[in-house]
Amino acid sequence: MDIKAYLKEECARVDSALDSFLPAESNPPCALHKAMRYSVFAGGKRIRPILMLSACSAVGGDISQALPFACAMEMIHTYSLIHDDLPAMDNDDFRRGNPTNHKVFGEAAAILAGDALLTEAFRLMSSPGSAPAVDAIKKLKVINEIAGASGSSGMVGGQFVDMESEGRPDIDIPIVRYIHTHKTGALIRASVLSGAILGGAEADSLAAMERYGRAAGLAFQIADDILDIEGTTEEIGKDAGSDEARGKATYPAVIGLSAAREEARNMMNEAVDSLKTFGTEADPLREMALYIVMRKN
Amino acid sequence: MDIKAYLKEECARVDSALDSFLPAESNPPCALHKAMRYSVFAGGKRIRPILMLSACSAVGGDISQALPFACAMEMIHTYSLIHDDLPAMDNDDFRRGNPTNHKVFGEAAAILAGDALLTEAFRLMSSPGSAPAVDAIKKLKVINEIAGASGSSGMVGGQFVDMESEGRPDIDIPIVRYIHTHKTGALIRASVLSGAILGGAEADSLAAMERYGRAAGLAFQIADDILDIEGTTEEIGKDAGSDEARGKATYPAVIGLSAAREEARNMMNEAVDSLKTFGTEADPLREMALYIVMRKN
Q1: Which one of A40, A142, A156, A183 makes the best mutation probe of the B interface by having the most chain B beta carbons within 10 Å?
Q2: Does B3-294 carry CATH code 1.10.760.10?
């Protein structure tokens, strides 16, 4: 299959749905909705929502039922980037080649735009119009998975430990693994799992999908660490080498670049291996595992 | 009835439930959970959760089913206070007489503690163990109401307009009313409505409860504005007169203190009037409408 064409098509589907689900800029408070939309449409690759749709499809589900949840996931991811970029956090001026939210709208608006995106995700997922064919108990299960993956024992917890660990000389593999599996891995795992639940997967398929999501999530973040070293500023849309400059806890920093590359490949293989009971319907997930590790941005 | 004793008892019930629902400080990341708990247990009056329990009880419901949602509401309220107090927002050093979250844990931790509390609220509400006797469709409806009341067309929207309006000389009653009904009113209205839904209220009772919640919410914020002028710093736990010093859009600033007092009383009367078809089971709500306007902190 042509993974690039697939990603492009699914990205357009997610973008169009995000546009329809997000509050319009003409709705008050207009400036707040403008700030929310600015970061959502600042060039994201939509990896998480596409993984959710692909997992839904791989288990034989109807992706239109997963689409609102996929968009909610992207809203959560976007809020986390807005808050991560704040002066009190990573203090980044650029993200994906564009000025960060607080550089354009100011710090207070950026905090509130992030808060509002996170909240909007849960409003959307709990809306009666979202996934009307999926039963309410399953929807609650997905909301619970996504909330768990986003909060203090998921993404926010990972971000907190990442911040605590910055510049510390005693960082070891268990800490880096904790940061990666929580900060990035948790949302990716939850995306895949949610797509499978919404698609009606049985226990066996769910377990396989969870294994895929876990491996793909870790592979994604290790690949990100490597890109920060090997990519150019132009390719990755932010300052290359910034992790090292900040003393960030990364795989290459702790185990070296070549061992990190091997670990990313191992995780990619584990992700692909976890799909062995699936047929061609899981090809997009297989190709995405490769893409996650091989991408240049 | 003795409203003070009632509030004290219900406050203890909510505090104890919050303690059981919030992640323990001994769970990693410990420092993040400590920061979350610090603000939740910094002396809140628990008005919103108590209103939810009282509304549930007034329609004949079982308050144990509403308790997790009541605690989630308090987590959302607490997150909003942590973020409002940040240097980029209101830049407050004290809240309820205690140092604000960012003064104790630093700005980055305060941002993340707020994010995590908001997320935890949705995790708790969607948890299978929460309100097991309430059907899933009703739970989704309550989550949707609370998310709507908390986001860009609710509390966050109100906070955004409040911030935008600071120091502007052209603030009129429609703007102040927008700020108040959104920033404070939305969560109070949603608390009452959610309690009634979880308690199994029919359409008539729901409409009455919504009217009560709307009036009580506006009364609460006008009373807050008046307290900021008339209360002492010791009574209100933050600098008295700070609204005026900041050029905040308040009822007294726009229509004068005496007209603001009358509007608060009108709203209190409307709240009580909306309960006229209820018997003594709604006495706590009636007394709370009075308390909201007459309180000294």
Answers
A1: A156
A2: no
